[in-house]
Design goal:
With 225 residues, the protein is an alpha/beta fold. It has one domain: Rossmann fold. It is built from six helices and eight strands, in the order βββαβααβαββαβα. The protein starts with a strand and ends with a helix. The protein has an eight-stranded mixed beta sheet with strand order 1-2-4-3-5-6-7-8, with helices on both faces. Helix 5 links the parallel strand 7 and strand 8.
Length: 225
């Protein structure tokens, strides 16, 4: 359904996956990768957003690297240069908003695991992101400053998550609310980190994933209308 494109980031070319709805236009959504890289699962999520009427773009933050090995994924995540990733995220926002297919002046951003933290990070830097869906976001090298955040935040977390346990999710929600931000947080019972990833039968939960998807679509449709 989608296609590979490129966009500029501080004089460099960044590859990305773009999916456009059959209608030819719609609100824009950035889709940010897990620690595995820009793998087929993330491309499929972009395609799913396009089938729901969104123009979805996923930048390749690892610049072509990807893996299915957890140890290698952890290395890639920790080796990610956050200043460069920030520039790439800014470039992706501009690239998506500049496209004729995108309606409106604000984007949504959704990310999974590492990408969840980066989606929220991108919104703290860029007011053109008007809504963030953070799926169990974590990256130890990313510090969040909510003073410039204008986006509303949907939090999707998991009760059995050992990377981002419920108390961490609740602390994030509390910090956002204390900063005067609009939030909607959900901690799904009896599911693990990455429960949305249907390519991982060890953690995927179909019922929780379907409900999280419904919440995300409703959230973006309301916030980006």
């Amino acid at each position: 359904m989608g296609s590979e494109i490129g966009f500029g980031s501080n004089g460099e070319d960044v590859r990305a996956y773009l999916a456009v709805p059959d209608s030819g236009r719609g609100p824009g959504v950035l889709v940010l990768q897990e620690w595995w890289g820009l793998v087929d699962h993330i491309r499929d999520v972009c395609d799913r957003f396009a089938r729901e009427g969104f123009v979805a773009l996923s930048p390749d933050l690892y610049r072509g690297e990807k893996t299915s090995d957890p140890d290698e994924a952890g290395r890639l995540m920790m080796d990610l240069e956050i200043p460069r990733a920030a520039r790439d995220l800014d470039g992706a926002v501009k690239a998506l908003l500049d496209r004729d297919e995108v309606d409106g002046s604000r984007l949504g951003a959704v990310g999974y695991c590492m990408g969840g933290q980066l989606a929220l990070y991108a919104a703290t830097r860029n007011p053109r992101i008007g809504a963030v869906a953070d799926y169990y976001g974590v990256h130890p090298n990313v510090t969040l400053d909510f003073s410039e955040l204008e986006a509303s935040v949907l939090g999707i977390f998991a009760e059995k998550d050992e990377f981002v346990p419920p108390e961490v999710a609740r602390k994030l929600e509390s910090d956002l609310q204390s900063a005067g931000k609009r939030t909607e947080f959900h901690i799904f019972d009896d599911v693990d980190h990455a429960f949305f990833n249907d390519t991982r039968p060890d953690v995927f939960d179909a019922n929780a994933a379907a409900e999280a998807w419904r919440l995300t679509l409703n959230f973006f449709r309301a916030e980006l209308a």
